[in-house]
Structures are given as structure tokens and as C-alpha cells.
Amino acid sequence: MHDVSIDILGNQVLALIGPSGCGKSTFLRTLNRMNETISGARVTGKVLLDGRDIYATDVDPVAVRRQVGMVFQKSNPFPKSIFENVAYGLRVGGMRDHGTLRERVERALRQAAIWDEVKDRLDESGLSLSGGQQQRLCIARALAVEPQVLLMDEPASALDPIATAKVEDLIAELRNAFTIVIVTHSMQQAARVSQRTAFFYLGRLVEVGDTTSLFTRPKERETEDYITGRFG
Length: 232
Hints:
By secondary structure, this protein is α/β, with parallel strands linked by helices. The chain is built from ten helices and eight strands. Strands 4-5-6-1-7-8 form a six-stranded mixed beta sheet, sandwiched between helices. Strands 2-3 form a two-stranded antiparallel sheet. Helix 3 crosses helix 4, helix 3 runs parallel beside helix 6 and helix 4 crosses helix 6. The mean pLDDT is 95.
């Protein structure tokens, strides 16, 4: 990545688009220090969350990841019950009171628009759910610890059209409570779910702006070439 500077606005969805290998996911992972888990990765610069650099030496990366949750491309429920999948982060954070746990788990499942589908089977394995339900379960798991920001790395790329529509509807609803950054390979999806879009190419941020403007009146030739299908 080279000289990327971008403002991520509260209670909006920012979509990151660009061809494979352009740096979208790498940039996304800088926002919650996930790149530090990759051997040999190096980060320079600052990422400010509410004015504080999350890479400052006195900042705990685990605390950062509680504030900045992440949902991955492939749903990755734990081999635990639906309830324990959502409660996992809360238990790791030291929450023990069962009543509070149940309350937070139910709230997260409702926020992830899956409560009505699983409320009578919370003791069943999370792995018993369909692919789309598993992804919404993973979203609930991320929401349970009450983050400020939610990162999504192609969250619907492995899902069928019906499950994709449910995830997109969910993103639109979650924007009211969270700031969301989504990597997507689908320009149509970026147009549907985001208020702002950033186009990356060869590790550079080429252009960022209002989604409608970027798709209809791009300022940069590279952006226009990409969205019109000349490459990518």
C-alpha cells in the first residue's frame, strides 16, 4: 500500500472496490491491526479512531479488535452451540453473569436479523445452520461485544442470491448504529449498500467519494476504465 489517506465517516458504509490483488483486504486489515498476525507484515503511518492512533505503543491490539469488529469472506462459526458462538467474545472479555450473557446474545442475534430463525435452537451447533445463516451468526458474534466499527471482507461472496440480499438488507440496517467498511468484488453491491466508495489499484487509493458520483462521474481515468469494464 502506498500513501493511502482516507476519512471513514460515522454511520455510513464505505465500500472498497478494485481488481484482485489491489490491496483492498490488506487495507481493511490495517483498520483493526489484523495484519500484525501475518509474519513479516510491516505497518507505517497512523490509523486514528476518535482521534487516537490505534498503532500507538500503549494501545492493546485486542482492545482495538473489540472496538473494530471483523466479518470474513468465508463464514467461520466455531464448533460450539449457536448461543456460545455469540457469547464467545463476551466470555473472553470476562462476562460471567448468565442473565447478562443471554440478554447480550439475544440483542446481537436480533441486530443480525437471525433471532427469529434460531431462538428455539440456541443449543444446536452453529455448524448446523445454512451458509447464509452462518454468516449472519458470525455478524452477531462480532456485534455482541458492541464495536464502534464493523469491517466486512466480501461477506456475501460465498452466498447464494437470496442470502446475499439478506446480508445487504442487514448492512443497510446496521449502518444506523455502526460505521461499516466493506470490501466487495461486486460493483453492483457497492452501489446498493454504500454511501461512499473507494477505488484501489496496485496498492494505491486512486479515488474516493460519494458512491453515486464515483460510479456516474468518476474523476480519474483509471476509475472510469475499471467501472466500465476495460480492465479488472
